[in-house]
Specification:
Mean pLDDT of chain B: 95
Helix content of chain A: 10-25%
Strand order of the largest sheet of chain B: 1-3-4-5-2
Largest sheet of chain B: 5 strands, antiparallel
Order of helices and strands of chain A: EHHHEEEEE
CATH topology of chain A: Thiol Ester Dehydrase, Chain A
Distance between the termini of chain A: 7 Å
Shape of chain A: elongated
Mean pLDDT of chain A: 96
Helix content of chain B: 10-25%
Radius of gyration of chain A: 16 Å
Oligomer: heterodimer
Number of strands of chain A: 6
Shape of chain B: elongated
Low-confidence stretches of chain B: none
Strand content of chain A: 35-45%
CATH topology of one domain in chain B: Thiol Ester Dehydrase, Chain A
């Protein structure tokens, strides 16, 4: 499969929306009940514009784009991100993250590819150095 | 109270086992929008070569943060969680987590640095099966902002 890929290829692109109900669901599923992810009063008291998404929700949502492209979530061998900007989630309404996955590097001997993810809200990146190492079948 | 840099280098004893259930994996996959059927359909997971449904790539955070609580909930460490911001996260999967796993975690405090009042705390959770087989390494860095003066 490395033969079919070239560094710089865009392999996947998806927009994913997130609203307050989604954050409550993620809080319950993950066990991260930090109130900045569901309580405006607490969020603004610590200097945030309002409730923000869990960074780990954003990281998880972006990984599904890679998993679906490769066809096997277990083929994601290594996955890292830096959290560079918060994702405010309005109420009412929703925020939309735009995920783009590009081949960053190929290792034919190891049979792996590094997929570089751009994750942005309104065109502004919210994650830095978002990279997934995947095993190619 | 400032963050105690003396915690750097600390290693905690192994946690009690975390039992991975199918329903928990489905709940987590739903929450992050991971719709691949390997998370929910055992037959699909087996077709891919796994013994049972597998976890999404970031599920290990659920296991890791239970171990990280040993540090963050220790009052003597001086970490005020209301001033914490997540800086980075990395998962290195030695094999996928699957339903039925019983996972034991050893938490390491790899570094604590303080610069201009901002503390950066890097932890490493080494997650393994009960028989010692390595499963996932989770490295996480949190930034703790200084108190308002």
């Amino acid at each position: 499969m490395t033969d079919a890929l070239t560094v710089g290829d865009e392999v996947a692109r998806r927009e994913i929306t997130v609203d307050r109900a989604r954050l409550v669901r993620y809080a319950g599923a993950s066990g991260d009940f930090n109130p900045i992810h569901w309580n405006d009063r607490v969020a603004t008291s610590v200097g945030l514009p309002g409730v923000i998404a869990h960074g780990m929700w954003t990281m998880g949502a972006a990984s599904s784009v890679v998993a679906d492209w490769i066809g096997d979530p277990g083929a994601v061998l290594d996955y890292q991100v830096r959290f560079t900007r918060p994702v405010p989630v309005p109420d009412p309404g929703a925020a939309t993250i735009e995920v783009t996955a590009v081949v960053g590097a190929l290792d034919p001997d190891a049979g792996t590819a590094r997929i570089d993810l751009t994750v942005a809200v309104d065109g502004v990146r919210v994650l830095g150095k978002a990279q997934a190492l995947v095993r190619l079948s | 109270m400032p963050v105690d840099v003396g915690y750097a280098g600390r290693q905690y004893p192994p946690t009690a086992a975390y039992e991975v259930g199918r329903q928990k994996l489905q709940e987590f996959a739903d929450a992050v929008g991971a719709s691949h059927q390997a998370h929910t359909e055992p037959s699909v997971a087996r077709t891919l070569g796994y013994p049972d449904v597998i976890a999404p790539p970031t599920f290990a955070v659920v296991v890791a943060q239970r171990a990280e609580a040993q540090l963050f909930e220790d009052p003597a460490a001086g970490i005020d969680f209301s001033r914490v911001v997540h800086a980075d996260e990395r998962f290195t999967h030695h094999r996928p987590i699957h339903a039925g796993d019983r996972l034991v975690t050893v938490l390491h405090v790899d570094s604590i640095t303080v610069r201009a009042g901002l503390a950066m705390i890097t932890t490493r959770a080494e997650i393994s099966a009960e028989d010692g087989e390595p499963v996932c390494t989770v490295v996480s860095t949190l930034a703790v902002r200084p108190e308002e003066s």
